């Protein structure tokens, strides 16, 4: 049909018609809130490179989560801020049953049993060198020894009551090893969210500040295990392998510069696809918002809606708290 029989503007003429013809929407249930957890009580610390995001001790975190859960928050993803004295070459603190993550999981599950708790399985908060894996004397990441450590860490999270363990380390074979260990230990209901396509991205910079691993990592890179930003087919290969090994959900990370990968993943696989709007994306948006160059709510809502359009089922975003309030006010 040609103009004037077809006029695309007819369905854009009012918000009612725009809403009716919308292909995608952003809902409270799509959001996962990543949070930085501090040891101790009554502690709240700003993050220089992420203005508006705070590291919180578990008591203050539970106050926030209680409110957000009432607004529809389904899931929280925990990232520990580990004191230097607990970091080591071998990262043993990662599977301490009384460690910061393990005790935080227990406290949240006790206060809010219906809220899904997701834990990060990777060694970088715990290694003195800041890498996600264990290294040999030449500084190379040792894959299979790291996988053994990740299995211990994942089991300790499951034991603490984590609903979902989320390996973000990009070692080969870790999903299969973790799934097997969880089944053997009778944690058959602990789900695995695999960071299947995680790129070696400079957009993680502010996160490394937030958890205090930037100094430990120094000038070293994670390029020997995280993916090359130049590659797309390889992401499909990574995702297929992780599904085969037992992943229940998969993650693409970062988000906004990688929407093509999200779309590819959605078109090629049937399980839930998550994406992470990472710290650098937050920093870019928030800096422009704070400068008055972008309007806060429209910029954030548009960015997140575009994740949905690309094919995301769930989005990890540091904006989850703000967005939940906005979605609630709109009801
Ligand atoms: C490390 C980890 C990183 C992020 C989540 N888990 C950083 C990294 O790989 O160095 C980044 C998240 C963000 O930037 O918001 N296991």
Poorly predicted residue ranges: none
SSE run: HEEEHEHEHEHEHHHEHEHHEH
The biggest sheet, with number of strands, parallel, antiparallel or mixed sense and barrel status, is:
8 strands, parallel, barrel
- End-to-end distance: 38 Å
Number of DSSP strand runs = 10
CATH topology: TIM Barrel
Bound molecules: ligand PBG
Taken as a percent bin, the fraction of beta residues is 15-25%
CATH homologous superfamily? Answer: Aldolase class I
Percentage of residues assigned to helices: 25-40%
Task: State mean pLDDT (0 to 100 scale).
Answer: 97
CATH class category label: Alpha Beta
Structural class: alpha/beta
Q: Taking Cα atoms only, what radius of gyration do you get, to the nearest Å?
A: 20 Å
The total count of helices amounts to 12
Total of domains: 1
Per CATH, the architecture is: Alpha-Beta Barrel
Largest sheet strand order:
1-4-5-6-7-8-9-10
Shape call: globular
What would the keywords be for this entry?
alpha/beta, 10 strands, binds ligand PBG
Task: Please characterize this protein's 3D structure.
Helix 4 (143-160) crosses helix 5. This protein has 331 residues and is of the alpha/beta class. The two termini are 38 Å apart. Strand 8 (249-253), helix 9 and strand 9 form a beta-alpha-beta unit. The mean pLDDT is 97. The longest helix has 18 residues, at 143-160. It contains 12 helices and 10 strands. Bound molecules: ligand PBG.
């Amino acid at each position: 049909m040609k103009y004037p029989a077809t006029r695309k503007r007819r369905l854009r003429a009012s918000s009612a018609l725009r809403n009716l013809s919308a292909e995608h929407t952003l809902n409270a249930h799509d959001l996962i809130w990543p949070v930085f957890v501090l040891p101790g009580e009554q502690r709240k610390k700003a993050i220089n490179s992420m203005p508006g995001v705070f590291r919180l001790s578990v008591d203050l975190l539970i106050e926030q989560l209680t409110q957000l859960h009432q607004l529809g928050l389904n899931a929280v993803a925990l990232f520990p801020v580990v004191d230097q004295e607990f970091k080591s070459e071998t990262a043993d603190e990662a599977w301490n049953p009384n460690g910061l993550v393990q005790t935080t999981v227990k406290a949240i599950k006790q206060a809010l049993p219906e809220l899904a708790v997701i834990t990060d399985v990777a060694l970088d908060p715990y290694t003195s060198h800041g890498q996600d894996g264990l290294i040999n004397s030449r500084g190379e990441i040792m894959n299979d020894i790291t996988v053994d450590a990740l299995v211990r860490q994942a089991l300790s999270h499951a034991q603490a009551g984590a609903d979902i363990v989320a390996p973000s380390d990009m070692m080969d074979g870790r999903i299969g090893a973790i799934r097997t260990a969880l089944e053997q230990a009778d944690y058959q209901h602990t789900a695995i969210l695999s960071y299947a396509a995680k790129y070696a991205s400079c957009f993680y910079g502010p996160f490394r500040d937030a958890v205090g691993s930037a100094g430990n990592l120094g000038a070293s890179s994670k390029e020997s295990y995280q993916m090359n930003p130049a590659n797309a087919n390889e992401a499909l290969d990574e995702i297929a392998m992780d599904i085969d090994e037992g992943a229940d959900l998969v993650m693409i990370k970062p988000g906004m510069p990688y929407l093509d990968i999200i779309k590819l993943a959605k078109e090629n696989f049937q399980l839930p696809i998550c994406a992470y709007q990472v710290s650098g994306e937050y920093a870019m948006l928030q800096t422009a918002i704070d400068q008055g160059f972008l309007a806060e709510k429209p910029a954030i809502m548009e960015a997140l809606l575009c994740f949905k359009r690309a094919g995301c089922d769930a989005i990890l975003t540091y904006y989850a708290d703000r967005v939940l309030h906005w979605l609630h006010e709109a009801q």
